[in-house]
User: Fold this.
Amino acid sequence: MARAAPLLAALTALLAAAAAGGDAPPGKIAVVGAGIGGSAVAHFLQQHFGPRVQIDVYEKGTVGGRLATISVNKQHYESGAASFHSLSLHMQDFVKLLGLRHRREVVGRSAIFGGEHFMLEETDWYLLNLFRLWWHYGISFLRLQMWVEEVMEKFMRIYKYQAHGYAFSGVEELLYSLGESTFVNMTQHSVAESLLQVGVTQRFIDDVVSAVLRASYGQSAAMPAFAGAMSLAGAQGSLWSVEGGNKLVCSGLLKLTKANVIHATVTSVTLHSTEGKALYQVAYENEVGNSSDFYDIVVIATPLHLDNSSSNLTFAGFHPPIDDVQGSFQPTVVSLVHGYLNSSYFGFPDPKLFPFANILTTDFPSFFCTLDNICPVNISASFRRKQPQEAAVWRVQSPKPLFRTQLKTLFRSYYSVQTAEWQAHPLYGSRPTLPRFALHDQLFYLNALEWAASSVEVMAVAAKNVALLAYNRWYQDLDKIDQKDLMHKVKTEL
Assistant:
């Protein structure tokens, strides 16, 4: 009975707020998940509703989610998302807002390995790299660049729409507003099919495009074209990271928001209503035991899918019931290996002559996707990248944990191996339809957008959309939701 008392008090307070009228801001908001999506949506919700709204962020693990680091030999290295595209405008804004800095870039050459030899090798000379691309693949690389730039030019419209307060209740509506039926169709056709239509050769797709997609998604050119285009855009632009670790963005946003971080596993969301106003009871469990609280708005900022064994979140009291999100996720294993590279495996018996810091792979060898000589999250002015003959920290990305024999294939010897296993991205093609952000009146699924494309910036875009959607719904500003022909509307407003 003692435990029920604070719940009854909270419910009474929320009912009083609900009775105060439509102009009153929400009293309490719950966010489930403290990754980049959850921390960003907490920031955006406070930005729109004001500082008086209480925001509780539930996190069962570590703040940062798929932005994480691992300590190796007294240095910290990225084990999750390692870098961001220069056009990641929300992430750029977060870094400026929080007073963080870009990490100093340490240049290294890249190559694509095909199992027996290198398919493509980067040099230190830009014009020579272009000549090699032309010599091997004709103008396919130019056609690819034009295709990606066209997609990105349309996608960048989302920032203008969001700046004017527009939001979308479903992923399909958002995509249609940016690229009309073209973007929606790109979620149903493969990268390979789309590139062949614009004149990119099959050889270029097999040798280069597939390697980039394996590096970013762990998937092939059979994945949907829209997600593939977003991945290929990241490969073409300049990349950056956060000094001290990318996860500082998440912790910084939560601190700035003064969100109440509750370390617990959310088990259910139950609908209650009074006088036509929805209230949501969030039940959770932690080391202390089981408890629950009531909220005006709930945002789910963690993946919901049937094969996610770590998520047992259920929904009760909804009519019609909220369906499980269909589809599977692509497992990715990141292994940080402190050791000596076996350069002979890559055709360089003398390790001193091995010139590459980043190795991408085609479909073969299948046991790893990328191999990178990585730098710590804190880089001093005197820092230099380890030479191939020296013991270095290598990041190996693979679809499964590496066996000892596979580690021995890649490394002559090693001091330590530390791993992080992620349900990193949706397994594209495993879901027949695109999910919706709005699950109920004020219940939202932020991660819906990653079924169109998955990246840190995409999650930030989804966070802004959900915050605007919640705000516009709360104040019944329906003219700002799911509007068509937004380019014309925005130009008119300007």
Residues 332 and 399 are 5 Å apart (CA to CA). The chain is about 35% helix and 25% strand.
